[in-house]
Write a structure and sequence with these properties.
303 residues; Rossmann fold; alpha/beta; single chain; eight-stranded mixed sheet; 36% helix; two-stranded antiparallel ribbon
Amino acid sequence: MYSLNQRFDNRDIPEDEFMTSGNLACAGCGASLSMRLALKGLGKPTVLVVPACCWTIIPGTWSFSTIDVPFFHCAFETTGATISGVKAAYKKRGMDNVCVVGWAGDGGTFDIGIQALSGAAERNDDVIYVCYDNEAYMNTGIQRSSATPKGSWTTTTPMKKPKQEQKKDFDEIMIAHRIPYLATATAAYPQDMIAKFKKARKIKGTKFIHLLAACPTGWRMPENLSIEAMRLAVLSNIFPLYEVHDAEIYTQTVIPDEIIPVDKYIHLQGRFRHLTEEDIKEYQEMVDRRFERLEERFEKGRA
C-alpha cells in the first residue's frame, strides 16, 4: 500500500527459529512478533531476563517454554539490576560471549523499572535492554502508563476523562545517559528490526532498543490490523525508526516516501474513537513538533 525508500529484502531475515509455536500470546500480539524477530537477530548464546509483564505469561506454564534460550523471571522493578548481575556472573565464569537481554514492557521500563535501568546505563554495563511498548499496562487490565499517548482511552483513563499528559520521551532520557547505542524498531519492518539487534549484539556497553508493539486488545482493534497499525505509526512519524550512536549520531533508518496524516493511524483504533477533529489536529501538531526536532538531528548526522 505504501512504498518505502529502504534497502532490504527477505534474504536479510535469518531462517533460524528460537521461538516455537504454542505460546500463550493473544492473536495479533505485537510483543510476540517482536520477540521472534529479535531472537533471529540476536542468535545464540543469548539469555533473556523478563519482569512481570505479558511476556511472563506468553512463553507458557512451567516446566514448558516456547523460547529456545535461557529465560529468567525477575521482579517488576529489577530488570536493569538483574541483567547487570547476570552479565557479571557470566563474565566471571569466562563466558563474556553470552548476550544478556532485558525484555520489559513500557510499564516496567518507563515507570517501575526506570531506576534500575538508569543505574545499568550509568555504569555502561554490557547488556541490551529492550522495551516492547504497547502503551499501557496490558497484562493487568489496560491501565494507563507514562507511555500511554495523550488522549488515549484506558481502563484508568476512561473516555469521559482520557489521558491528559503527553507520552514520556523515554528515548531522550536514555540518550541523556550517553549510552553507545539506542534504536527504535517495530515488527512491521522486520528487516530493519533484525539488523538493529544484530548491530546491538556487537556493540560493547549498554544498548537500548525501543519497540512499538501493537496490542489489539488494549488498542481496541481487530487482531489482523496489528502490522498495519505499526506501519502507519512509522509512516505518520508517530514512531519514526532511527538509531543513535554514542548519544550524538542520529540516523533515520526507514524513510517514508510520503508522510501520511496521523488520523489514518488514530481511526484504526477504538482507544481513540472519542477524539474530536480538534483533538486530532492537536495530536498532529504534537507529532510534527517532535519530528522536527529529530529531523534536525538526522540532518546533523548526514552532514
